Amino acid sequence: MSEQEKNGKMGKGGKIAFAVCLVVIVALLGVVIFLLFRGKDEEEPKRRNVVVNEDNVDEVLESIAEEGYVPPGYYEVTMNSTWNFESGDAPSTNAYVENAQTNTNPVYFDVVREDTGETIYESPILPVGSHLDEIVLDTALEAGTYDCILTYHLLDEEEQDISTLQLTVQIVVNQ
Asked: Residues 110-123, buried b or exposed e (16+ Cβ, 10 A)?
């Protein structure tokens, strides 16, 4: 009988090659499983928008600089923070909102009263480089001062929201 017949169909070298292949396959399988489960454990936490106002603007800018985070569709805000109206149904005498030429995305915005949560203005879409002035509120307000949140919605090329930015605005109605 030959040496191969004594040891079975596989010789000593074949058994070693088979063992090495088996170890390599098990190691690759382990790496694949590790990578699949690691991705689920290390998901990034959901980022929330921060209301930016005159009191916290420096803190928010510092936080963004520290994180090195630049949100998609970066947006430069050009607007005034107090809007004056002669009456609740008249055009504003000074409201101004611009989608600056340096921006890359069209936007629209909504204005919501802080005290009631009521939406009092919904803007049209502002293409890059356009602006609104002489704004007339969708809801007539009584005389008084109203603290509001203005939420910008940055849009992609299909006019779908990609990001939002919230700012405070004060609305003053004289009569």
From this structure: bbbbeeeeeebbeb
CATH of the domain at 113: 2.60.40.2550
Residue 70 is predicted with a pLDDT of 44
Q: Which stretch of 70-79, 104-113, 138-147 has the lowest confidence by average pLDDT?
A: 70-79
* Cα dihedral 51→57→58→63 (10° resolution): 30
Residues 80 and 105 in one domain: yes
Q: Which amino acid is at 40?
A: K
In contact, 73 and 110? CB cutoff 8 Å:
no
- 3-state DSSP call for residue 156? coil
Percent helix, strand and coil across the chain, each rounded to 5?
Answer: 25, 30, 45
Question: Which residue pairs, CB below 8 angstroms and at least 24 apart, start in 110-117?
Answer: 110/150, 110/151, 110/153, 111/137, 111/148, 111/149, 111/150, 111/169, 111/171, 112/148, 112/149, 112/151, 113/146, 113/147, 113/148, 114/146, 114/147, 114/148, 114/149, 115/146, 115/147
Average pLDDT over residues 72-100: 90
Longest dimension (CA), the chain: 114
Question: What token pair was written down for 38?
Answer: 């690691």
Instruction: Write out the residue range of the structural domain in which residue 17 sits.
Output: 3-41
- State the pTM of this model: 0.59
